[in-house]
Each structure stands twice: as C-alpha cells, then as structure tokens.
Specification:
- It is built from 6 helices and 13 strands.
- Strand 12 and strand 13 form a beta hairpin.
- It has a 6-stranded antiparallel sheet, with no helix packed on it. A 3-stranded mixed sheet has the order 4-1-10, with no helix packed on it.
- It is about 30% helix and about 25% strand.
- About 10% of the residues have low confidence.
- The longest helix is centred in the first third of the chain and has 24 residues.
C-alpha cells in the first residue's frame, strides 16, 4: 500500500517537473512593439488611467488590441505585416495618434528567425495627424526588429478631455461688461459730476461759458430751433405758416400773405 501511494504522488510531480523543464527550454520572445506611457507634465501619474484603457492597431479589416498593463505599457507580440493606425483609447485623456508600418523581411535575409519558426519583421513608427493624407508622415519616433529587442515607443499625451462645461461663477466685475450698466453709470457721473465741476471752475472761464451758452440760446430762438420757432401742430392742422424775420434790432412775424404780396399792405399788385 505504501508503495502504491508513493507511485501515485511521484507521477504528478514528474509531469510537473517535465512541464517546467520544457518551458525553460523554449524562451519567450519579447514583443515586437511596446507602447509606453511615461510620466509627463500633462499626465504625471499614468497609473490613474482606468483599467479599461487599451491601444489598437487598425488597418483594412484588421484591428489588433492590447490591454493596459501594470507597468503602464501596451504590448503587441507579433502583428502581421501592414500599415496600421495606432491609437490609445480612454475616457479621460487624448493621446497622439501614430502610424505603424510592419514590413516582413525576405527569408534569405532572416536565417536566424526561420530556424525558430518565426518570420523576421521590421517595425517603423511615425507620428501622424488626423485629416491629412496617409502618405504625409510626421516625425519618426523609432524603428527596429525583433532581434534588436523589439521597438519601444513613448506615447505623447495631447490633453485631458472635458465633456462638461464649468458653470461660470458670479462676479461683480461681470456687471461692468453690461453696456446698459455702463451707460447708466456714465449718465449718473455726468449728472452728479457736472455741478461739482461748475463750482470749481475758474471765474473767468465760467463767465465765458455762460456767455457762450446765452449766445447759443439766442441763436436758437432766432433761427426757430428753440421753443418759439416752427409750430409743427399748426402746420399739420393746415394753419398759416409763419416766418421769422431776423435782424439786428427788428424781430417780427411775417405771414404767408405778406410774404407772397411782397409788402406789408396785404394785397398783391396787379400787372398792367
């Protein structure tokens, strides 16, 4: 019984040891493309990104996805040859899009890779811009092969996304931007400020100002622009129009009949 129990225990241990030995004999290859998120001024701590953050390589009918790792990286092990658009997706931040070109190297030049049963590839990464032609490449960010340890690219952060607009707080300074408040304030300033200015005015200047004001008042009265000039109500009612004759010492009203007759008698002269 003891022997049989020892055999039963040794068989799983042997199978486990053989599995570990086979795993040690087949080393794991590094990823061909690694995207890293280093701390920046816009994103000081990349670990605050939600677990649902992921990166994609997109081309025609192919979309490769890499999840966000604990060391703030995204790994693409063995992407097939092609030209991809690389993007990082998260709900709080916007990242710089990139162009990734994976090119297969001919078998004649990849002897070391074919012996391990893998195809040798080269990866080149450029910065790209939305809305531009695909051939319009930006700055080259890096490139290399798997034999060189793969390619590691730092992802640039554009800005933090804002889905809500902050409500503006009340400030007394915003009242000064209202034109009605400005007009009212200017009117109050003139109303209460002009008397103070007149009181503090120089006597000679004040006398000249009063003289100029009296001259303007008399001129308005003589030309009819004052209170005793043209009567719009009587003109609309069909009354006689009055004309104001101005002179150095004579101020009298001439009716329409006198203006047409040419004299003060009242009747027009007959032509012989």
């Amino acid at each position: 019984m003891l022997l049989t129990s020892l055999i039963r225990v040794s068989i799983p241990l042997l199978s486990l040891l053989s599995l570990v030995s086979t795993q040690k004999q087949t080393p794991t290859l590094p990823p061909l493309l690694t995207l890293s998120l280093p701390p920046t001024q816009a994103l000081p701590n990349p670990q605050i990104l939600p677990p649902r953050t992921f990166a994609t390589l997109t081309t025609a009918n192919i979309t490769l996805t890499a999840t966000f790792r604990r060391d703030s990286t995204f790994e693409f092990r063995d992407p097939p040859p092609g030209s991809y658009l690389c993007e990082v997706w998260t709900n709080a931040w916007a990242f710089v899009p990139m162009r990734v070109d994976v090119v297969a190297i001919p078998a004649a030049e990849s002897k070391g890779a074919t012996e391990q049963g893998t195809e040798r590839k080269r990866v080149d990464v450029w910065q790209t811009f939305r809305g531009n032609e695909w051939d319009n490449k930006g700055e080259k960010l890096g490139g290399g092969t798997l034999e060189q340890g793969g390619v590691t690219i730092n992802i640039g952060v554009l800005a933090e996304r804002a889905f809500y607009e902050a409500r503006a707080r009340f400030s007394p300074l915003t009242l000064l931007k209202n034109p009605m408040i400005l007009i009212g304030g200017l009117g109050m300033l003139v109303m209460f400020g002009m008397p103070k200015i007149m009181e503090n005015m120089d006597p000679e200047m004040r006398e000249e100002f009063d003289k100029q004001q009296r001259t303007n008042t008399i001129a308005n009265t003589l030309t009819g622009s004052g209170g005793g000039g043209f009567d719009a109500a009587s003109w609309l009612a069909g009354g006689s129009k009055t004309h104001v004759a101005t002179g150095p010492s004579i101020h009298r009203k001439i009716t329409d009949s006198e203006a047409k007759g040419g004299g003060s008698g009242g009747k027009p002269r007959r032509r012989g």
